[in-house]
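Hello,

Our lab assistant flagged a job as stuck in the queue for most of the afternoon. It eventually completed. Since we weren't sure the result was trustworthy after the delay, we are filing this so someone can double-check. Below is the sequence as submitted and the structure that was eventually returned. Let us know if re-running is recommended.
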Amino acid sequence: MAHTTQVSFRIDEDIKKNAEIALEDMGLTMSAAITVFLKKVGREHRIPFEINSDPFYSESNMRYLNKVISGIEDGTRPLTEHELIEADD
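-- returned structure --
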């Protein structure tokens, strides 16, 4: 029989609440979901999903956005509306 251990960590309250709601809909407890995740990590020696950084927060995009904001604030760049651009995955 496997021995169990208790793991304790801190997480943002909203993240926990949203996860609990989603997991309840799936019929899982937080403990069961974390156990499934850790078993898969242990078997595969990798995070079992792709992790990417959001290109919106890239250094080059932040520089561009700050330049645009500065131009709007100092009046050298007009503030105009545009259509939302959806990127294809």
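-- support follow-up --
The delay was a queue issue, not a problem with the job. The result is valid. DSSP finds three helices and no strands in the chain. Residues 5 and 20 are 21 Å apart (CA to CA).
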